[in-house]
Amino acid sequence: MRGVEYRGLTRIEGPVVITKRSRNVGFNEVVAVYDRDEGRRLGRVVDMSEDWTAIQIFGSNTGLSADDSRVEFLGKPMELRVGPGLLGRIFNGLGEPIDGYGNIFSSTCLDVNGLPINPFARTYPRDFIQTGVSSIDGMNTLIRGQKLPIFSGNGLPHNRLAAQIVRQAKILNTAEGAAEPFVVVFCAMGVKYDVARFFLDDFERSGVLANVVVFLSLADAPSLERLVAPRCALTAAEYLAYERNMHVLVVMTDMTNYCEALREVSSIRGEVPSRKGYPGYLYSDLASLYERAGKISGSSGSITQIPILTMPNDDISHPIPDLSGYITEGQIVLDRELSQKGIYPPVAGLPSLSRLMKDGIGEGMTREDHKDVSSQLFAAYSKVKQVRNLSSIIGEEELSDADKRYLRFGELFEQDFLTQGEFEDRDIGQTLDLGWKVLATLPREDLLRIKKEYIEKYMNPFAANAVLSPASEGWGKGVDGLGGL
At how many degrees (to 10) do helices 282-290 and 229-238 cross? Predict the structure, then answer.
């Protein structure tokens, strides 16, 4: 059905055009704008008053003129065509196929703006997701239905880590002894072509491409397309999770580019800026994306989100990571100092956390000692940071024997526990055993966060068969001080 059409524009300001308001125009309604040569470009209604309507164009304003342009209100919100044929397809940021295969065969179209999930319909996330990455599984556990962003910086290997999680992520069903795989929705916003190519090649090599839906809004695409791309991706994820009952892992990169596009639109519209020029509604806008993850009662499917954002100047207090941290249930923070040491993945031990971890680990889910081992590793590594700061002031030679033991523990923790290969998939048992191995270098009286029966059951074999680690000379000396172990 053809919508209402008007001729002429009142004003053109970059990607936003102003026209006289028409009757029955809705917010976020799709608009087609035609230039004098009948060139068609899509847009959407972003603001209205009694006298005018502001339209955001997804593309260039080249060729538009105030007198000769036409505006057609299509009378519907932006929609994405969904169906079983979504998997294995590649779309642009507006949900249009760019892989040469045309539209999918389906008559079902969904509003990309989505609807808020009724909190009463949500079920609490509790299922452990094994990523095969020790620094995540052991200390910052990912739970099905959680949103756990990666806070990174320019030049850090966040894309490699995200690709590794996509390859290896699985839900362990301990009752049946089977692992349930994910389907993946990957959304790239404003990234360079080589980054998009890296992910596509990795999906193809690992054999998961047939279970991936890709939305690409590259750096050379209109910047405002980045505002629609994550909403299209999440709409596809909601269809696969709640209509097809699949476990969906949504990876979105880079959320910083999304926020920059939001700031651009806000500035053009003349809105009063907030912190660092971002609009005051940045928090609610990010929440409208992040809160579309979760589990709903009555559906066996779920949406788990891993947004990736690069912190400007590695500043974790910048508005984008700051507000994201408030909305999401934790964060994985990548550390530049660890990366410069050659450690992969360079997951920072202390700033990283998973707020839902406590509900997805333990007996029957991972292993009975998981919570105690994780807590003790955090406490010991925190002590390592204090000792290293002291050492930088007075010198390592002036440290006490106990402090030197913590320095050795820190080296072993970083080289044996944190460091692993990009294609190395460790199960949760291997991760926890590595945790016990590095904790065996500390005296028993320092292990205040672990139950005695767990020490007897899990750590004694490592203490009795202590082997010198190539990463930490004198490892055996730490064992001598175990107090009878």
Answer: 30
Contact predicate 484/444, CB 8 Å: yes
pLDDT tens-place string over residues 325-378: 999 999 999 999 999 999 999 999 899 999 999 988 988 888 999 999 999 999
- The CATH class given to the 81-359 domain equals alpha beta
List the structure tokens of 321: 């990571």
Domains of the chain, by residue range, sit at 4-77, 81-359, 370-480
What is the DSSP code (8-state) at residue 417? I
CATH architecture classification, 370-480: Orthogonal Bundle (1.10)
User: 70-77 and 4-7: which strand pairing?
Assistant: antiparallel
Alpha-carbon distance of 267 to 290, in angstroms, equals: 24
Q: Are 90 and 199 in contact (CB under 8 A)?
A: no
| Best CA proximity match to 213, nearest among 198, 232, 190 | 232
CA distance 124 to 296: 9
User: Which residues make Cβ contacts (< 8 Å) with residue 4, sequence separation at least 6?
Assistant: 22, 23, 24, 72, 73, 75
CATH class, 4-77 region = mainly beta
Cα separation of 219 and 254, whole Å? 11
Beta strands in 192-334 (DSSP E): 212-218, 247-253, 294-296, 302-310, 330-333
Q: How far apart are CA 274 and CA 280, in angstroms?
A: 5
Report the distance separating Cα 68 and Cα 193, nearest Å: 36
Which burial class, exposed, middle or buried, applies to 437 when counting CB atoms under 10 A from its CB (0-12, 13-18, 19+)? Answer: buried
Of 209, 179, 206, the C-alpha closest to 88 is: 209
Residue 8 φ then ψ, to 5°: 95, 145
Structure tokens at 451: 């139950």
What are 254-304's pLDDT values in tens digits? 899 999 999 988 887 778 888 899 999 999 999 999 999 999 988 888 999
Token output for 469: 């680690």
